[in-house]
Amino acid sequence: MPPLPLAILGHLIEAQEMSLFARSLDPATVSAQAAILGSFADAIASTLSAWITQRHHDRQDPRVKKVAHREQLHSDFISERARATVDAMQHKFEDPSKLTPVYALEKRVIAV
């Protein structure tokens, strides 16, 4: 068989490529591929969203605990200070050790 001229060979190759391309654009195949790619995109978006949400909650949790701890310290300080004030109004200043809890709480509030 004699060799085919390059122009004819090029047309044959082009025709084969077009037939392969045309087969891959079958409406049923395109629909199936679109459904699969859509499912992958939804799965990735859902996973990414869950990861971001969890990361945000992990960052918020220590802040909430820290604020609650500060509130408790301030509450304890105010209660102790009020107790010491009432005690000072009712008695003479005889025992300075009664003020130790107030000063200890004050220093803890300042430290936080």
Describe the 3D structure.
The chain has 112 residues and is mainly α. The protein has one domain (6-111). Helix content is 85%, strand content 0%. It contains three helices and no strands. The protein has helices at residues 6-24, 27-90, 100-111. Helix 2 packs antiparallel against helix 3 (100-111). The longest helix is centred in the middle third of the chain and has 64 residues, at 27-90. It is rod-shaped. 0% of the residues are buried. The mean pLDDT is 79.
Q: What is the radius of gyration?
A: 39 Å
In whole angstroms, the N-to-C terminal distance is 93 Å
Compute the number of structural domains.
1
What's the β-strand tally? Answer: 0
Shape: rod-shaped
**Helix percentage range:** over 70%
Q: Encode the helix/strand succession as letters.
A: HHH
Major sheet details: none
Describe the structure concisely for a colleague.
The chain is mainly α and 112 residues long. It is built from 3 helices and no strands.
Keywords:
85% helix, rod-shaped, single chain
List the SSEs and their pairings.
Layout: H1 6-24, H2 27-90, H3 100-111
